[in-house]
Each structure stands twice: as structure tokens, then as C-alpha cells.
Amino acid sequence: MENAHNSSESNVVETLDHESRATGRDHEALRVWLRMLTCTNIVESQLRTRLRQSFDSTLPRFDLMAQLDRHPDGLKMSELSRRLMVTGGNVTGLTDKLVEEGLVVRQDDPRDRRSFTVRLTPEGKAQFSRMAGPHEQWVVELFAGLDHDEKVQLLKLLDRLKGHLATLFA
């Protein structure tokens, strides 16, 4: 069974491996980008699969609930869209489903009658709490191939890259 599990993981890596498009002749920036994209896709695929199998949930649903959990007073739909980096339509559709299930509530914003604030309900908080711990452990497991110092170094490097990109597009 162990070999079947490893073989299955290898297939996932091969399927999501964007690096196969690059060669040693390609610019190193392109190879770095494809390596980052490949790693992101593998981690995201694993999180999607585990959320679906363990909680019959999706990653976008988890991400929206995580944002609301961090902001107990709620967030406007436009702010949710910005934080999740998706269109307003995507946030509206997902929010509609969560409202139907009683996991979030939409409230009129008293300062702006055209917008809504979205909050987790007590049931939404409970459901998110059940998912948050395992989700964090999965991320820890997926990054266990790096030791503490390597993770700190990677964070610093990605912070520099993020700062550079922010400067380019400010």
C-alpha cells in the first residue's frame, strides 16, 4: 500500500509539474517562476483533496471562512473579493451558498446602503474551527521537507520578491 500511495503522489507531482516546460537554456527567472508555480499547485491540490475528503468542503469556501474568522466584525463583499483575489461574482456565489447553509450572515452596512457586511454565524465559526486545526497540520506536513532555518530564509526571499513586485506596480 505504501508504494501505491507514493506512486499516487508522484503522479500528482508529474501532473502539476510546470517545470517540465523549461530547459537549462531558459532564463533562471522563468525556471524560478515555474518551480514556485509547481510547488504552489502541488500544495493547493493536496489541500483541496484533503478538505474535500475530510470535511466535504472546498478550498475557496475554507479561505472565505478563514477571512471571516480573522475579522469577527465581518467584511464587506468588496473587501472579501480583494483579500481572496477573486471577482465579486465568485464571492457573491460562494456567500449565497454559505448563507443558505446558515454558516454566514449578510447584514446591511449602516454607513453604505449599497453594500453588505458578511460575518460567520455561530455554526459557521464552529464548522471553521473543526477544519482549521487539520488544515494547519496539513500545511505543516507539506512543508516538513524544509527545516526551520530554510523556511525563515524562504520567507525572507519571498518577502524581498513581493516588495520588488509591489514597487514595480505601485
Largest sheet, in brief, is: 3 strands, antiparallel
- General shape: globular
Strand elements, count = 3
As a percent range, the share of helical residues equals 55-70%
Q: What's the order of the H and E elements?
A: HHHEHHEEHH
Q: Could you tell me the strand content as a percent range?
A: 5-15%
Regions with pLDDT < 50 over 5+ consecutive residues? Answer: none
Summing up helix and strand content along with how strands pair, one would put the structural category as mainly alpha
N→C terminal distance: 51 Å
Total of helices: 7
User: pLDDT average, as an integer?
Assistant: 89
Q: Looking across the biggest beta sheet, what order are the strands in? A: 1-3-2
Radius of gyration: 19 Å
Structure description:
With about 170 residues, this protein is mostly helical. Helices cover about 70% and strands about 10% of the residues. It is built from seven helices and three strands. A three-stranded antiparallel sheet has the order 1-3-2. The longest helix is centred in the first third of the chain and has 28 residues, at about 30-55. The radius of gyration is 19 Å and the shape is globular.
